[in-house]
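Weekly puzzle thread! Below is a chain. First person to post its structure in token form gets bragging rights.
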Amino acid sequence: MKAEIIAVGSELLTPHHTDTNSLFLTERLNEAGFEVHLKTIVGDSETDIAEVLGAAIDRSDVIMFSGGLGPTEDDLTRSAVAKVLGRKLLTDAGLLEMLRQRFINRRIPMPSINERQAQVIEQADVLQNPLGTAPGLWLHERGRYIALLPGPPPELRAMFESQVMPRLKQLGQGRLLAKRTFRVTGMTESEVDSIVAPIYKSYPQLQTTILAASGYIGINLHQWLSSGEEPSELDAAATRIQATLGDAIFTTSEQSLEEVVGRLLRDSGRTLAVAESCTAGLLAMRITRVPGSSDYFLGGVLCYSNEAKVDLCGVPNEILQKHGAVSAETAEALARGARAALHSSIGLGITGIAGPGGGSAEKPVGLVYIGVSDGDRVIHVRRIIPGNRDAIRERAAVFALSLLRRFLLQPHTLAG
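Winning reply:
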């Protein structure tokens, strides 16, 4: 069954406000057995709201409104919906008295405009709002179900959970959405899709999305199931994808790359120190935003200049003179130096050219070297990272975490 979400509010069409209600509603609608196939944001215009609803009734089984139920002149959801359905707006005496009592309890007079919130669309069920003054409405029209919910997220969520979700579960008839999630590191979005597309395309019941997120490529598989149905295609596709991508998949849950690396360090009893040049602290920031990272992360060194590389991390002058600050040799020396300076089990070093200047034909902007050392092994990886200065620095930090994860998983030297 199809669901549609309509968020009402001109403020949502500006760069200053975000529609977070639709994210909550999508998740809960999926859990109730409804596939959200359209989301619309519409301004405070009765004509526009009516036009969107008119189209929604023709294409969706369930329609969720959020916002536009307040007391002011620009709160027009009720009147627009009533107009489309050809129903009257009636004042509910019980609601009006309840509103008045709330203002009495707050010891302030009720403005006359709040009386509008006691208006109810003819033949609608009232959804009580224990957290605010705007009641919601539930309507049935030509086999379609329409919910009018308030805009403030705490009010919407409380009303939805207590009064809308039970209704939706009955309508959903036990249908559910089964999911499998993979997060991949060390590959681009196009590389991932080229590998897994032949797999997911062979399972017609699956819905698949591949997206580039901050620090990983996400693969999301979905299969809608009837009551009692097993996710056979989903499980088969997931098994094949996991076997094909191997350890490029760093999690099958919602964990971040830095959380996975932290768990590997903690489980192995090892500690980490970093030496950062071009990333200037971004790697340490990612590592330390994980709660409990002090168990395994000892600290970092920012060695932007050549002098700092020598003085703080012990990079030999001859390496810098012969190979340059951006080189495999320097990255490995930074990793060894960080480990020695902070007495950690593992050292991780990053050096590169973030731009926009400083590049050459031999060493272009975006060139990054990452080194890892544990005393027995020392390795490096070379990458040319696309993007502007900020993107290069962020992606370099992610590549460093990706290399560290591989280093922790594999006992033998990794080729760069």
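Puzzle host: Confirmed. Bonus trivia for everyone else. The chain has a mean pLDDT of 94.
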